[in-house]
Design a protein that fits this description.
The complex is a heterodimer of chains A (135) and B (148).
Chain A lengths: L1 H27 L3 H25 L5 H22 L9 H42 L1
Helix pairs in contact in A: 1-2, 2-3, 3-4
Chain B lengths: L23 H14 L1 E6 L2 E6 L5 E5 L2 E5 L4 E4 L3 H7 L5 E5 L2 E4 L3 E6 L5 E5 L4 E4 L4 H13 L1
Classes of the chains: A mainly alpha (135), B alpha+beta (148).
Chain lengths: 135, 148
């Protein structure tokens, strides 16, 4: 329930930002701030494409998966950041740090969610077994 | 729900379901009963066998071949895993990894291993790896069960 509300909140906030900055762009033209917002949205789109592609070649080992995803996204963020001048050749490692800052908490969050799901599944399986015994 | 049974000699097994409304619960019950009668062909030692879906523990694709695992036997079939997935979606046969479908009725428990992999234990003690992406399939089926 809370997860769904948070998800909708984030989507709604993103739409508001996009619409407001788009109208700002139409009214006052492109400023560095407006450019940054659009760049972040474009980056987010391509990161999602990469995550989707990585999931297509999914292997059952979660750690390997997350490492492949992490390095793919980091390399893309570095190249994109270099292209839009967020990073320079000298501080290329910043992309890996930024992505890690997002991925490390996401990893632990995922672990907690999976643990909760497993608990739920096992409880339901137990309930099914008890029901079947009654029948 | 009321269950009535009676023995009628000389007639095939007949199940009559009476319901006030054809709701999700009734539909799932019908699908479950239908699944008991579904059979698939499988080869074992050069012979063709008809296997009831309800007897299958899990299905696995290995090198473009699909294998059906029952309590004691393994059968090979020409059908692809995705075909089984589409055919038996409503009957509790669900995907747990890229190469494996499981019969939910045969699932005993799930646990997370030290290396973050997920392991399913079947009622016969056999263990299978569950991909995280498909964990929600199992959860959704059980959620539907609760709703019914």
């Amino acid at each position: 329930m809370l997860k769904e509300i948070l998800k909708k909140t984030l989507i709604f906030a993103a739409i508001i930002i996009l619409v407001v900055f788009f109208f700002s762009f139409l009214l006052i033209g492109m400023t560095p701030e407006i450019m940054l917002v659009f760049e972040i949205f474009i980056l987010s789109f391509f990161v999602n494409v990469i995550q989707h592609l990585v999931k297509q070649v999914i292997c059952t080992h979660f750690l390997i998966n997350i490492m492949i995803e992490y390095f793919s996204v980091s390399i893309f963020v570095f190249l994109y950041g270099y292209f839009v001048e967020w990073f320079f050749k000298s501080n290329w490692w910043m992309a890996f740090v930024y992505v890690a800052i997002v991925y490390v908490p996401a990893y632990f969050l995922d672990m907690a969610v999976v643990k909760k799901d497993i608990h739920y599944i096992n409880a339901q399986l137990e309930r099914r077994r008890k029901n079947n015994e009654k029948i | 729900m009321e269950i009535k049974t009676r023995e009628v000699n000389g007639k095939p097994l007949t199940i009559i379901i009476e319901y006030p409304i054809l709701d999700t619960k009734t539909k799932r019950l019908i699908k479950k009963i239908e699944a008991l009668d579904f059979v698939v062909s499988g080869n074992s030692n050069g012979k063709v066998f008809q296997i009831h879906i309800s007897d299958i523990y899990y299905m696995e694709a290995v090198e473009r071949k699909t294998f059906l695992y029952t309590k004691d036997e393994v059968y090979m079939t020409e059908k692809k895993l995705y075909e089984f997935e589409e055919m038996f979606r409503e009957t509790g046969i669900i995907r747990i990894s890229k190469s494996c479908l499981i019969n939910m009725d045969m699932l005993y428990s799930i646990k997370q291993l030290m290396n973050s992999q997920l392991e399913a234990t079947l009622i016969n003690g056999e263990k299978l790896i569950v991909a995280r992406t498909y964990l929600k399939n199992i959860k959704n089926i059980l959620k539907e069960d609760v709703r019914c």
